[in-house]
């Protein structure tokens, strides 16, 4: 007697998060970023939930503990920076897109300064988190630099690191209130210095 062919195992399709769940997650991340900026790593999770307009249970469904929330805030900021590269490349001329992204990077570094004390509270420290974001950030600026080289807006001997390193360097000069203003001025100096020689 011939055996019947095995019936394929039907698996339920993986559910995608509902729109309201995604909206709640974004509200929690925004509220957490503000709370960690104000109060550091010990910001009250109940207050974050209240600020986001959700219950504590909703917060814990998205983030099991404080460390997960802190990491998610930082990753969210890095993802926004990477997404900005794609959006700017589609909507702006190459040199303008590069300059705008570099200014956004300065704001990102300022945000990182604010969130850093909270990140340092994460078990094992924030080193692995920073290492993972470094690749994402470098990929974004490298793409913009290549595009600006191709258009002839900047010299073909310019490397993404030539622009990124000075911006990172100026951010380590301390917490002088004017550092962000200086970094923004540096963006224009770097862009001007990258233009083709006449």
Verbal overview:
This protein has 198 residues and is an all-alpha fold. It is built from 8 helices and no strands. The radius of gyration is 22 Å and the shape is elongated. The termini are far apart.
Could you describe the largest sheet, including whether it forms a barrel?
Answer: none
The residue fraction in helices comes out at: over 70%
Task: Please state the average pLDDT score.
Answer: 84
Taken as a percent bin, the fraction of beta residues is under 5%
Number of strands: 0
Indicate the radius of gyration in whole angstroms: 22 Å
The gross shape turns out to be elongated
Order of helices and strands: HHHHHHHH
Structural class by SSE content = mainly alpha
First-residue to last-residue Cα separation: 86 Å
Low-confidence stretches: none
Count of DSSP helices? 8
Summarize the structure.
The chain is an all-alpha fold.
Task: Name a few traits of the molecule.
single chain, 198 residues, mainly alpha, 70% helix
What's the layout of helices and strands?
Elements: H1 19-39, H2 45-52, H3 56-62, H4 66-91, H5 94-119, H6 127-150, H7 160-171, H8 179-193
């Amino acid at each position: 007697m011939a055996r019947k062919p095995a019936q394929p195992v039907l698996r339920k399709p993986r559910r995608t998060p509902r729109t309201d769940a995604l909206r709640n997650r974004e509200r929690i991340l925004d509220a957490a970023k503000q709370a960690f900026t104000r109060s550091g790593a010990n910001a009250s999770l109940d207050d974050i939930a209240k600020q986001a307009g959700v219950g504590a249970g909703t917060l814990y469904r998205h983030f099991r503990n404080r460390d997960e929330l802190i990491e998610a805030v930082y990753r969210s900021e890095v993802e926004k920076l990477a997404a900005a590269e794609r959006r700017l490349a589609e909507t702006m001329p190459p040199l303008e897109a590069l300059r705008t992204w570099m200014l956004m990077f300065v704001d990102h570094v300022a945000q990182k300064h604010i969130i850093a004390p909270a990140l340092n509270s994460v078990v094992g420290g924030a080193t692995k988190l920073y290492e993972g974001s470094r690749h994402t950030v470098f990929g974004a600026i490298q793409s913009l630099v290549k595009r600006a080289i191709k258009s002839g807006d900047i010299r073909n001997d310019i490397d993404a690191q030539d622009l990124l390193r000075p911006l990172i360097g100026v951010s380590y000069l301390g917490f002088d209130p004017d550092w962000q203003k200086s970094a923004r001025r540096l963006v224009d100096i770097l862009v001007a210095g990258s233009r083709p020689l006449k």
